[in-house]
Specification:
- There is one protein chain.
- By secondary structure, the protein is an alpha+beta fold.
- It folds into two domains: about 5-60, Arc Repressor Mutant, subunit A; about 75-159, Glutaredoxin (3-Layer(aba) Sandwich).
- The chain is about 45% helix and about 15% strand.
- It has a five-stranded mixed sheet, with helices on one face.
- Helix 1 packs antiparallel against helix 2, helix 1 (about 5-15) runs parallel beside helix 3 and helix 5 (about 80-100) crosses helix 6.
């Protein structure tokens, strides 16, 4: 049994008695391993006495769950109306240009992946982004540039 399987079994053992354990297990696996592989889905199904189809259905339904490794960091840009109305579209275009990528792509150094999100629940402080697990409000282009520069080696982010 490899190290990842050991981690998965520990997560399942810890959380399987919780009511509605599937989502807590999936979130923990996503956080600790970065993605939920088909092998992990099979182990989760076995550990929770569910079918692999049930696990796959939940994983594929929620955009936050990844089924393969992604970039080291994730930058989600809120695309809801409140954020778009106060500069979110300009921020989105600036970041795409700076990073040289589109949504669902990673930078060349695989440090940052750009993802759309349709509400971060931070409308009063729009425009908002989620950088890894931290939500930032009233995001300016300058703040966004500082955040991406802190994790990428993209030449464009140095300007």
């Amino acid at each position: 049994m490899n190290q990842q399987d050991v981690q998965l079994e520990a997560i399942i053992a810890e959380l399987k008695q919780k009511p509605g354990a599937l989502l807590p297990v999936l979130h923990r696996v996503q956080t600790q391993l970065g993605y939920i592989s088909p092998t992990a889905q099979a182990l989760i199904a076995k550990g929770l006495n569910l079918s692999t189809a049930e696990i796959h259905g939940v994983v594929s339904f929620y955009e936050d769950f990844k089924t393969e490794p992604g970039a080291k960091h994730t930058l989600q840009i809120c695309r809801a109306e409140a954020c778009q109305s106060v500069g979110g579209r300009q921020l989105e275009q600036h970041l795409k240009n700076q990073l040289g990528i589109e949504y669902h792509q990673a930078t060349k150094d695989n440090q940052l992946q750009l993802e759309p999100v349709y509400c971060l629940g931070n409308c009063a402080c729009a425009p908002s982004i989620k950088f890894d697990q931290k939500i930032h409000g009233r995001v300016t282009i300058d703040l966004a540039d500082r955040l991406i520069k802190s994790v990428t080696n993209c030449a464009e982010a140095d300007s």
